[in-house]
Amino acid sequence: MTHHSTVVDASESPHSLRILVVRNDKLGDFMLAWPALACLKATVPASHVSVLVPAYTAALARQCPWIDEVILDPGDAAGRSAQRILLGQLKKGRFTAMLTLFSTPRIGWLGWRAGIPLRLAPATKWAQLFYNHRITQRRSRSAKPEYLYNLELAEALLATLGRAPSRRPTPPYWPLPVGTIEHQREQMSHELGIATTRPWIFLHAGSGGSAVNLTPEQYARLACMIDERLDDQPQARPIWVLTAGPEEEPTAHGLQARLAANGLEAVVLPPRQGLDDFALGLAAADLLVAGSTGPLHIAGCLNRPTAGFYPSRRSATPLRWRTCNDDARRLAFSPPEGADEADMSAIDLEAAATAIRELLSHQGLVGSAS
Protein backbone atom coordinates (compact mmCIF):
# COMPACT_ATOMS: atom_id res chain seq x y z
CA MET A 1 0.00 0.00 0.00
CA THR A 2 1.36 3.42 -0.87
CA HIS A 3 0.92 6.35 1.48
CA HIS A 4 0.28 9.89 0.33
CA SER A 5 3.39 11.74 1.38
CA THR A 6 3.02 14.44 4.03
CA VAL A 7 3.19 17.73 2.22
CA VAL A 8 2.07 20.40 4.63
CA ASP A 9 3.36 23.91 4.19
CA ALA A 10 3.93 25.25 7.71
CA SER A 11 3.84 28.80 6.38
CA GLU A 12 0.32 28.21 5.08
CA SER A 13 -2.15 30.92 5.98
CA PRO A 14 -3.98 30.00 9.20
CA HIS A 15 -7.22 30.54 7.26
CA SER A 16 -6.38 27.63 4.99
CA LEU A 17 -5.60 25.25 7.89
CA ARG A 18 -8.45 22.76 7.78
CA ILE A 19 -8.33 20.16 10.56
CA LEU A 20 -10.58 17.11 10.89
CA VAL A 21 -10.82 15.69 14.43
CA VAL A 22 -12.30 12.20 14.85
CA ARG A 23 -13.89 11.06 18.11
CA ASN A 24 -16.77 8.89 17.01
CA ASP A 25 -17.51 6.76 20.04
CA LYS A 26 -19.41 7.40 23.30
CA LEU A 27 -20.63 10.66 24.83
CA GLY A 28 -18.16 10.72 27.75
CA ASP A 29 -15.24 10.08 25.39
CA PHE A 30 -16.38 12.91 23.15
CA MET A 31 -16.61 15.39 26.07
CA LEU A 32 -13.02 14.51 27.00
CA ALA A 33 -11.95 15.65 23.51
CA TRP A 34 -13.04 19.27 24.19
CA PRO A 35 -9.72 20.28 25.83
CA ALA A 36 -7.91 19.09 22.65
CA LEU A 37 -10.35 21.05 20.47
CA ALA A 38 -9.88 24.14 22.67
CA CYS A 39 -6.11 23.77 22.25
CA LEU A 40 -6.34 23.68 18.43
CA LYS A 41 -8.52 26.81 18.34
CA ALA A 42 -6.42 28.67 20.94
CA THR A 43 -3.25 28.06 18.92
CA VAL A 44 -4.68 28.81 15.47
CA PRO A 45 -7.95 30.75 16.00
CA ALA A 46 -8.45 31.22 12.25
CA SER A 47 -8.21 27.49 11.47
CA HIS A 48 -11.31 25.58 10.37
CA VAL A 49 -11.97 22.68 12.76
CA SER A 50 -14.38 19.94 11.71
CA VAL A 51 -15.34 16.91 13.78
CA LEU A 52 -16.49 13.48 12.68
CA VAL A 53 -19.03 12.22 15.23
CA PRO A 54 -21.97 9.80 15.36
CA ALA A 55 -25.51 11.21 15.13
CA TYR A 56 -25.86 10.61 18.89
CA THR A 57 -23.33 13.29 19.92
CA ALA A 58 -23.86 15.64 16.94
CA ALA A 59 -26.28 17.99 18.76
CA LEU A 60 -23.70 18.48 21.49
CA ALA A 61 -20.88 18.95 18.97
CA ARG A 62 -22.90 21.84 17.48
CA GLN A 63 -22.81 23.53 20.91
CA CYS A 64 -19.01 23.33 21.15
CA PRO A 65 -17.40 26.76 20.68
CA TRP A 66 -14.21 25.19 19.25
CA ILE A 67 -15.94 23.39 16.35
CA ASP A 68 -16.76 24.99 12.99
CA GLU A 69 -18.39 22.04 11.24
CA VAL A 70 -19.97 18.74 12.26
CA ILE A 71 -19.73 15.76 9.89
CA LEU A 72 -21.88 12.73 10.69
CA ASP A 73 -20.26 9.32 10.81
CA PRO A 74 -22.71 6.59 9.75
CA GLY A 75 -20.62 4.08 11.74
CA ASP A 76 -18.89 0.76 11.06
CA ALA A 77 -22.17 -1.04 10.43
CA ALA A 78 -23.33 1.31 7.66
CA GLY A 79 -23.30 -0.07 4.13
CA ARG A 80 -20.97 0.70 1.25
CA SER A 81 -22.99 3.58 -0.15
CA ALA A 82 -22.98 5.41 3.22
CA GLN A 83 -19.19 4.97 3.46
CA ARG A 84 -18.84 6.25 -0.11
CA ILE A 85 -20.88 9.36 0.73
CA LEU A 86 -18.68 9.98 3.78
CA LEU A 87 -15.53 9.55 1.69
CA GLY A 88 -16.93 12.12 -0.77
CA GLN A 89 -17.52 14.57 2.10
CA LEU A 90 -13.96 14.11 3.38
CA LYS A 91 -12.50 14.67 -0.11
CA LYS A 92 -14.66 17.77 -0.54
CA GLY A 93 -13.44 19.07 2.84
CA ARG A 94 -9.90 19.45 1.46
CA PHE A 95 -8.46 18.92 4.93
CA THR A 96 -4.86 19.81 5.74
CA ALA A 97 -4.74 17.34 8.60
CA MET A 98 -6.71 14.59 10.33
CA LEU A 99 -6.39 13.99 14.06
CA THR A 100 -7.90 10.65 15.12
CA LEU A 101 -8.27 10.47 18.89
CA PHE A 102 -9.65 6.94 18.82
CA SER A 103 -8.27 4.94 15.95
CA THR A 104 -10.12 2.30 13.89
CA PRO A 105 -9.10 0.75 10.55
CA ARG A 106 -12.18 2.12 8.72
CA ILE A 107 -11.45 5.72 9.71
CA GLY A 108 -7.74 5.38 8.92
CA TRP A 109 -8.60 3.96 5.50
CA LEU A 110 -11.11 6.78 4.81
CA GLY A 111 -8.55 9.47 5.71
CA TRP A 112 -5.97 7.82 3.49
CA ARG A 113 -8.42 7.42 0.60
CA ALA A 114 -9.54 11.06 0.99
CA GLY A 115 -5.92 12.14 0.40
CA ILE A 116 -5.61 14.09 3.67
CA PRO A 117 -1.86 14.83 3.65
CA LEU A 118 -1.20 14.72 7.41
CA ARG A 119 -2.90 11.92 9.35
CA LEU A 120 -2.03 11.55 13.03
CA ALA A 121 -3.26 8.95 15.53
CA PRO A 122 -2.11 7.02 18.60
CA ALA A 123 0.30 4.21 17.65
CA THR A 124 -1.99 1.30 18.53
CA LYS A 125 -3.59 -1.56 16.63
CA TRP A 126 -3.03 -2.27 12.98
CA ALA A 127 -5.14 0.77 12.08
CA GLN A 128 -1.94 2.80 12.46
CA LEU A 129 -0.87 1.54 9.02
CA PHE A 130 -3.11 4.20 7.49
CA TYR A 131 -1.46 7.07 9.41
CA ASN A 132 1.79 8.80 8.50
CA HIS A 133 2.27 10.28 12.00
CA ARG A 134 1.86 8.10 15.08
CA ILE A 135 2.25 8.98 18.72
CA THR A 136 3.03 6.21 21.23
CA GLN A 137 0.83 6.72 24.29
CA ARG A 138 0.16 3.27 25.82
CA ARG A 139 -3.24 4.41 27.04
CA SER A 140 -4.07 0.94 28.34
CA ARG A 141 -1.68 1.62 31.22
CA SER A 142 -4.05 4.43 32.29
CA ALA A 143 -1.12 6.53 33.55
CA LYS A 144 -2.83 9.84 32.69
CA PRO A 145 -6.34 11.22 32.26
CA GLU A 146 -7.94 10.52 28.88
CA TYR A 147 -8.41 14.23 28.19
CA LEU A 148 -4.68 14.75 28.67
CA TYR A 149 -3.86 11.98 26.17
CA ASN A 150 -6.17 13.78 23.71
CA LEU A 151 -4.57 17.16 24.44
CA GLU A 152 -1.09 15.72 23.83
CA LEU A 153 -2.21 14.39 20.43
CA ALA A 154 -3.53 17.86 19.50
CA GLU A 155 -0.21 19.41 20.55
CA ALA A 156 1.70 16.81 18.50
CA LEU A 157 -0.44 17.66 15.46
CA LEU A 158 0.21 21.39 15.90
CA ALA A 159 3.96 20.76 16.27
CA THR A 160 3.92 18.71 13.04
CA LEU A 161 2.17 21.64 11.35
CA GLY A 162 4.94 23.94 12.59
CA ARG A 163 2.72 25.71 15.12
CA ALA A 164 3.89 26.13 18.70
CA PRO A 165 0.89 25.28 20.91
CA SER A 166 -0.28 28.20 23.04
CA ARG A 167 -0.45 27.93 26.81
CA ARG A 168 -2.76 25.03 27.59
CA PRO A 169 -6.40 26.08 27.88
CA THR A 170 -7.93 25.82 31.37
CA PRO A 171 -11.48 24.95 32.53
CA PRO A 172 -14.20 25.49 31.64
CA TYR A 173 -13.63 23.74 28.31
CA TRP A 174 -17.29 24.51 27.60
CA PRO A 175 -17.55 28.20 28.52
CA LEU A 176 -21.12 29.47 28.50
CA PRO A 177 -22.27 33.00 27.69
CA VAL A 178 -22.74 35.22 30.75
CA GLY A 179 -26.11 34.66 32.41
CA THR A 180 -26.69 31.16 30.95
CA ILE A 181 -26.42 29.37 34.30
CA GLU A 182 -28.79 31.82 36.00
CA HIS A 183 -31.24 31.45 33.11
CA GLN A 184 -31.12 27.63 33.35
CA ARG A 185 -31.73 27.75 37.10
CA GLU A 186 -34.61 30.17 36.75
CA GLN A 187 -36.30 28.07 34.05
CA MET A 188 -35.78 24.84 36.01
CA SER A 189 -36.99 26.37 39.27
CA HIS A 190 -40.21 27.38 37.50
CA GLU A 191 -40.60 24.01 35.73
CA LEU A 192 -39.92 21.84 38.79
CA GLY A 193 -41.29 24.14 41.49
CA ILE A 194 -38.05 24.16 43.50
CA ALA A 195 -36.34 26.98 45.40
CA THR A 196 -33.20 28.52 43.93
CA THR A 197 -31.96 29.45 47.42
CA ARG A 198 -30.92 25.90 48.39
CA PRO A 199 -28.11 23.84 46.79
CA TRP A 200 -29.18 21.65 43.87
CA ILE A 201 -27.44 18.28 43.76
CA PHE A 202 -28.05 16.52 40.47
CA LEU A 203 -27.88 12.75 40.77
CA HIS A 204 -27.62 10.52 37.70
CA ALA A 205 -28.17 6.93 38.78
CA GLY A 206 -28.16 5.40 35.27
CA SER A 207 -25.10 3.77 33.81
CA GLY A 208 -25.47 4.50 30.10
CA GLY A 209 -25.13 0.79 29.46
CA SER A 210 -21.38 0.69 30.04
CA ALA A 211 -20.00 2.02 33.30
CA VAL A 212 -20.15 0.11 36.55
CA ASN A 213 -22.19 2.28 38.92
CA LEU A 214 -23.63 2.39 42.42
CA THR A 215 -27.06 0.78 42.78
CA PRO A 216 -30.12 3.03 43.31
CA GLU A 217 -30.18 1.72 46.91
CA GLN A 218 -26.60 2.91 47.45
CA TYR A 219 -27.39 6.30 45.93
CA ALA A 220 -30.40 6.64 48.26
CA ARG A 221 -28.20 5.83 51.28
CA LEU A 222 -25.56 8.30 50.11
CA ALA A 223 -28.15 11.09 49.66
CA CYS A 224 -29.54 10.45 53.16
CA MET A 225 -26.02 10.56 54.64
CA ILE A 226 -25.26 13.90 52.92
CA ASP A 227 -28.60 15.29 54.08
CA GLU A 228 -27.91 14.17 57.68
CA ARG A 229 -24.63 16.07 57.63
CA LEU A 230 -26.59 19.27 56.94
CA ASP A 231 -29.30 18.72 59.55
CA ASP A 232 -28.22 21.80 61.47
CA GLN A 233 -28.58 24.02 58.35
CA PRO A 234 -32.17 23.76 57.01
CA GLN A 235 -31.50 26.31 54.24
CA ALA A 236 -28.46 24.32 53.09
CA ARG A 237 -30.24 20.98 52.86
CA PRO A 238 -29.96 20.08 49.17
CA ILE A 239 -32.75 19.63 46.68
CA TRP A 240 -32.05 16.42 44.75
CA VAL A 241 -32.61 16.71 41.00
CA LEU A 242 -32.65 13.20 39.54
CA THR A 243 -31.64 12.91 35.89
CA ALA A 244 -32.10 9.95 33.59
CA GLY A 245 -31.14 8.83 30.12
CA PRO A 246 -33.57 7.17 27.71
CA GLU A 247 -35.22 4.15 29.40
CA GLU A 248 -33.75 5.13 32.79
CA GLU A 249 -36.76 7.15 34.01
CA PRO A 250 -38.26 4.27 36.07
CA THR A 251 -35.00 4.08 38.07
CA ALA A 252 -35.11 7.84 38.69
CA HIS A 253 -38.76 7.74 39.81
CA GLY A 254 -38.04 4.79 42.12
CA LEU A 255 -35.14 6.70 43.66
CA GLN A 256 -37.28 9.81 44.08
CA ALA A 257 -39.91 7.81 46.02
CA ARG A 258 -37.19 6.37 48.24
CA LEU A 259 -35.68 9.80 48.98
CA ALA A 260 -39.11 11.34 49.63
CA ALA A 261 -39.90 8.52 52.10
CA ASN A 262 -36.77 9.57 54.00
CA GLY A 263 -37.87 13.21 54.13
CA LEU A 264 -35.57 14.50 51.38
CA GLU A 265 -36.81 16.90 48.72
CA ALA A 266 -36.28 15.21 45.35
CA VAL A 267 -37.61 15.82 41.84
CA VAL A 268 -37.14 13.97 38.57
CA LEU A 269 -36.00 16.12 35.66
CA PRO A 270 -38.47 15.45 32.81
CA PRO A 271 -37.02 14.34 29.44
CA ARG A 272 -35.35 17.22 27.60
CA GLN A 273 -35.81 18.22 23.94
CA GLY A 274 -32.48 16.68 22.95
CA LEU A 275 -29.03 15.83 24.23
CA ASP A 276 -27.89 19.46 23.86
CA ASP A 277 -30.86 20.68 25.93
CA PHE A 278 -30.12 18.03 28.59
CA ALA A 279 -26.44 19.03 28.66
CA LEU A 280 -27.19 22.73 29.09
CA GLY A 281 -29.54 21.84 31.94
CA LEU A 282 -26.60 20.33 33.84
CA ALA A 283 -25.13 23.85 34.04
CA ALA A 284 -27.76 24.54 36.72
CA ALA A 285 -26.25 21.92 39.07
CA ASP A 286 -24.35 22.99 42.17
CA LEU A 287 -22.92 19.46 42.15
CA LEU A 288 -23.40 16.42 39.91
CA VAL A 289 -23.13 12.94 41.46
CA ALA A 290 -22.88 10.03 38.99
CA GLY A 291 -20.93 7.03 37.78
CA SER A 292 -18.32 7.48 35.06
CA THR A 293 -20.93 8.30 32.43
CA GLY A 294 -21.59 10.96 29.79
CA PRO A 295 -23.43 13.33 32.18
CA LEU A 296 -20.47 13.32 34.61
CA HIS A 297 -18.15 14.38 31.79
CA ILE A 298 -20.55 17.04 30.49
CA ALA A 299 -20.64 18.56 33.99
CA GLY A 300 -16.82 18.40 34.08
CA CYS A 301 -16.58 20.25 30.78
CA LEU A 302 -18.90 22.94 32.17
CA ASN A 303 -16.60 23.14 35.23
CA ARG A 304 -19.46 22.27 37.58
CA PRO A 305 -18.44 20.43 40.79
CA THR A 306 -18.58 16.63 40.35
CA ALA A 307 -18.48 13.50 42.51
CA GLY A 308 -17.83 10.41 40.39
CA PHE A 309 -18.04 6.72 41.32
CA TYR A 310 -15.66 4.44 39.43
CA PRO A 311 -14.58 0.80 39.37
CA SER A 312 -10.88 0.32 40.13
CA ARG A 313 -9.92 -1.75 37.07
CA ARG A 314 -7.00 -0.35 35.13
CA SER A 315 -8.96 0.53 31.98
CA ALA A 316 -11.59 2.47 33.95
CA THR A 317 -9.71 4.07 36.85
CA PRO A 318 -10.66 7.44 38.36
CA LEU A 319 -7.35 8.80 37.00
CA ARG A 320 -7.91 7.64 33.42
CA TRP A 321 -11.54 8.85 33.29
CA ARG A 322 -11.05 11.94 35.40
CA THR A 323 -13.46 14.78 34.65
CA CYS A 324 -11.84 17.86 33.10
CA ASN A 325 -13.07 20.41 35.65
CA ASP A 326 -10.81 22.23 38.14
CA ASP A 327 -9.08 20.00 40.71
CA ALA A 328 -10.88 21.73 43.58
CA ARG A 329 -14.26 20.87 42.04
CA ARG A 330 -13.69 17.16 41.55
CA LEU A 331 -14.15 14.12 43.77
CA ALA A 332 -13.69 10.48 42.76
CA PHE A 333 -14.51 7.30 44.66
CA SER A 334 -13.73 3.67 43.83
CA PRO A 335 -13.45 0.30 45.62
CA PRO A 336 -10.48 0.14 48.03
CA GLU A 337 -7.39 -1.98 47.38
CA GLY A 338 -8.07 -5.61 48.10
CA ALA A 339 -11.74 -5.40 47.07
CA ASP A 340 -12.94 -6.74 43.74
CA GLU A 341 -12.28 -4.00 41.14
CA ALA A 342 -15.97 -3.74 40.19
CA ASP A 343 -17.41 -4.30 43.68
CA MET A 344 -19.04 -0.89 44.12
CA SER A 345 -20.55 -2.06 47.44
CA ALA A 346 -17.01 -1.91 48.89
CA ILE A 347 -16.96 1.89 48.54
CA ASP A 348 -17.20 3.63 51.93
CA LEU A 349 -20.34 5.75 51.51
CA GLU A 350 -19.91 7.44 54.91
CA ALA A 351 -16.49 8.74 53.84
CA ALA A 352 -17.91 9.78 50.44
CA ALA A 353 -20.78 11.69 52.12
CA THR A 354 -18.31 13.54 54.37
CA ALA A 355 -16.08 14.45 51.39
CA ILE A 356 -19.10 15.67 49.38
CA ARG A 357 -20.30 17.76 52.31
CA GLU A 358 -16.81 19.33 52.53
CA LEU A 359 -16.83 20.05 48.79
CA LEU A 360 -20.19 21.83 49.15
CA SER A 361 -18.68 23.88 51.97
CA HIS A 362 -15.57 24.77 49.91
CA GLN A 363 -17.82 25.91 47.08
CA GLY A 364 -19.59 28.24 49.52
CA LEU A 365 -22.90 26.39 49.11
CA VAL A 366 -23.20 25.39 52.76
CA GLY A 367 -21.66 26.54 56.04
CA SER A 368 -18.57 24.84 57.44
CA ALA A 369 -19.09 21.61 59.33
CA SER A 370 -19.20 22.29 63.04
DSSP strand content: 5-15%
Low-confidence stretches: 1-11
- Give the integer mean of the pLDDT values: 92
CATH domain fold name of the largest domain:
Rossmann fold
Strand segment count: 12
Question: Termini separation (Å)?
Answer: 70 Å
Shape: elongated
**Computed CA radius of gyration, to the nearest angstrom:** 22 Å
CATH homology superfamily of the largest domain: Glycogen Phosphorylase B
Which structural class do you get from the secondary structure elements?
A: alpha/beta
What is the overall number of helices? 12
Question: How is the largest sheet built, in terms of strand order?
Answer: 3-2-1-4-5-6
CATH class bucket of the largest domain: Alpha Beta
Give the H and E element order: EHHEHEHEHEEHHEHEHEHEHEEH
Helix percent reads 25-40%
CATH architecture of the largest domain: 3-Layer(aba) Sandwich
Largest sheet: 6 strands, parallel
| Number of separate structural domains | 2
Pfam families: Glyco_transf_9
Keywords: Glycosyltransferase, Transferase
GO molecular function, one term: ADP-heptose-lipopolysaccharide heptosyltransferase activity
Protein name: Glycosyl transferase
Written description of the protein model:
It is a single chain. Helix 2 packs parallel to helix 6, helix 8 packs parallel to helix 9 and helix 8 packs across helix 12. The chain is an alpha/beta fold and 370 residues long. The strands form two sheets. Strands 3-2-1-4-5-6 form a six-stranded parallel beta sheet, sandwiched between helices. The protein has a six-stranded parallel beta sheet with strand order 9-8-7-10-11-12, sandwiched between helices. It has two domains: 147 residues, Rossmann fold, CATH 3.40.50; 183 residues, Rossmann fold, CATH 3.40.50. The chain contains twelve helices and twelve strands. The longest helix is centred in the middle third of the chain and has 15 residues. It is elongated. Strand 4, helix 5 and strand 5 form a beta-alpha-beta unit.
